Structures are given as structure tokens and as C-alpha cells.
Fold this protein.
Amino acid sequence: MIDIAFAKAALPKSGALALLLGEGAALTGLAAELDAALKGGLARALAAAAFKGKRDQSAVLLAPGAGLDRVVAVGLGKLDELTAHHAETAGAKAAAALQKDEQASIAADGLDAAMLAHAGLGARLRSYRFDKYRTTLKEDAKPKLKRVTILAGDAAAARTAYIPLAAVASGVELTRDLVSEPANILSPEEMADRAKALKSLGVAVEVFDRRDMEKLGFGALLGVAQGSENEPRMVVMQWLGATPAEEHGKSGKKAAKPAPKEPVVFVGKGVTFDTGGISIKPAAGMEDMKWDMAGAGTVIGLMAALAGRKARVDAVGLVGLVENMPSGNAQRPGDVVTSYSGQTIEVLNTDAEGRLVLADVLWYAQKRFAPRFMVDLATLTGAIIVALGHENAGLFANDDVLAERLIAAGKATGEDVWRMPLGEAYDKLIDCEIADMKNIGNGRAGGSITAAQFLKRFVNGKPWAHLDIAGMAWGTKEGALAPKGATGFGVRLLDRLVAEHYEQ
């Protein structure tokens, strides 16, 4: 993690400098000051590079003079169209170009304190690295950037605006860390233990083990877990930001007292490794299934973000944590399990396991907490990648207001979602001859939709949205705000949803 600092706007005497410049705008402020110091050299260099300040455009000047080692110009596009997300992507692009410099500054004349804070957020998110297990990385291959100073006309205001954004960044980084961990390290038990660390932020955390879930009757979740030697867990996290502090209960096996009234609820699929079980996956690419817990990772990161910025909302996060393995004790295709809701399920494909995990946790969430709404996140289906690629998460919802708010939050943060259909015709595809339902539809057609229809049977009419993030949780190439690997998708999206509509 790099350090983001704020200082009064002044031309640095050494190091590296990034200039965020608007499209077609004249050089002003520090850019004009630098151009004067270089006797017009900055303007000439930008002209030679055909740099016009268009969004995502950049140019690099090496050893330009005035004591600077490097100057990076990044386009903001038309300033009257600038959004917070545009500022973030510009800050991220600048940081990506400055990784070989130990310390660097970013300046953007004409941007207010809030926009500069978002540029700092982008720089921090783009500089994330997961090098925990790399022991032979050569020095020249390591990023050197440790600190980025945002130069602002009102540094104090920009610093204040950045404080809640820094909490969100910490939540994203926590999610990325969890998703990046190998499955031999991040078992369900270990992931539950890491969720306990949120207690330091004021989150009440309860951990349910196998015996607890057997008593509850979590037959669907436990059926998935029974083939693994790694014991399952369910974690319930409560942030009572809208409840007076003196009324908070203590974390533990008992619920926080008093129970939150109509909290917003988030549920995550946490399959820490998915072999497919008896319906085993092909060997090629199976290593990617370490991040089949990304939905749960997002929920944990979101709870850290909400608590870290002291969001004025009562929020509950629940994650079902299992490992799906083949063994002599593994669930078989054709088995029938009884879910916590009492509904029975014929398991025709043990690789359609995430929906079984979510079924029990969703029912528990709505039964215990009477939520205002529920949003679940899961790397649920490969079918959603076929439909939407890696540009949008699939959104399914039984509530139009919630769906529209999620779509708007996605556009605002750059974590886009695309609404997919639900309907009776799709629901009939999971009707079953020997149980209340089966866990897959008929063939491959509409696989992400039938999976969502399955989940809908466990929300009991509560306002609900399902985000299938299978195409978004992991990047095989660098993204606007993330390096290759775990993206942390969903933390910023859902934090924005809460901030815009559900805080007191």
C-alpha cells in the first residue's frame, strides 16, 4: 500500500511529477509554472507527443529539467464533463506511470478538493500489489513508489475529503488480499478468522461452525462441505452505525443487542476452493477456483469499508464458507438435501454448489434480521461470462428501485452491472420430479438465469438483488484501477449504494 499525502500546491524541486490536464485547456497553475521554468519546454513536448488532454491520454517526459526526473501528463478529458470516477482513473494512470519513482507528486490545477481526493484514491488502488509469496523478485522488477503527494490549493480540505475514501480503499485492499490467497492458506476456518479482525473497527462478528449449522438445519450448505476435511463456517458481521453507541451489544455467539432495525444486508458466497466435487471440473484452469470465494471476500471488505468510514447505517454481512472437494464422503449427483428453509433440493450437479451455500444463508438472513433489502454476491456461473464478458456483472433483482440504484452506483464507480431477466418460464426449468427443486436447469441455456431463479426461491419476497461477479472478480489484464489479479469488485459499488440512499 502506498501512502497518499496532501500538501499545498508548489512546484517540486526534485523527483517525479504527474500533471492531470483538461482537454484543450491552457497550461495554468503549476503546469504553467513548470513550463516557464523549462522555457516553454513542457508545451513543446506535449505538442510533439500530440497530447491534447483527452481522457486516458498520457505522455511521459524524462529528465525534463527544473530538477525533476520525470513528468507525466495525464488527460482528464473535458473538465465540464469530469466525474469522480474520471478523476480516479486519471490518478490511477499517473500512479501506474510513476511506479519506478520512490516519491512522486500529482497536481491538477482547477480541480476542487473532492476531485483531488478521488485522484488520490485512484492512485492508491492502482498501486496495489500482492507480493506476499514472492521471494526471488529482482530489485529492478519491484515497484519503488511508496508515497504520492497530492498538491492542492486547499490541502486541508482535500485531506479531509480523502479520509472516508481511504477507508473504502482499505476495504478494497482487504478483499483483494483475501481473493489472492491460495486455497491451502485460506481455508473456511482461516477466512472466518480474518473476518474476526473487523472487531477492531467496531464490527460485531459471530462465527458459526459445523455443529451450529447442523442445529440450525443448514442441509444445503453442509451438503457442499461434506466432501472436504476443511470444516465449514458461516460468519455474521454487524455494523450498527445508525444505532446509538450505548445500545451496541458485544460480539460473540449471541446477536448484538438490540438487533438492528431493518438493516441493509449483504450475503457472499465463500467457496474457498471449488473442484466441482464429484461433478469435477477439467484440470485446465482449475487453479482459478481459489477465487470462488470472491463474493464473500467482497462482503468482508465492504463491512470493513463501512465501519472504517463510520457509515451512518445498520448493515449486516453474512458469508457462507465451504470447500467443495471430491472424496468418499462427498455429495453425489442425485442426492436430495433439505435446506434451512425446509425446501428440498435434488443436487443434479455438485459443481452448481454456490447456490446451495447461498440458499441457507439467504434464508437465515431474512429470517433473523428482517432486512430492508438483501444483496448477494457470488462468482456463481460461467454462463454470465459468456453473456457479459468481463465488462459487467450480472444483476438480477425482484425490486426495480433497488436494481436502478445498483445500476446508478455502478456507473458512478465504474463497477458496472447489467440487469438480466427473471421470470416464471425460467423458474419452471428448476422444477423437480422428486424434490421441491433441482439445482440446475435443463442443459446449458440460460444458466446464469436459472441460478438466479434458484436463489429467488430463498428470499421469501424480501427486496433482493443478486450480483453474479464471475467475470469481474479477477482480471487477466490490468484494469483502470487495478493491476492484474484480484479486483475487489463490488466494495466501491455497494459502498456507493449505501452512501447515496441508506445512510441517516
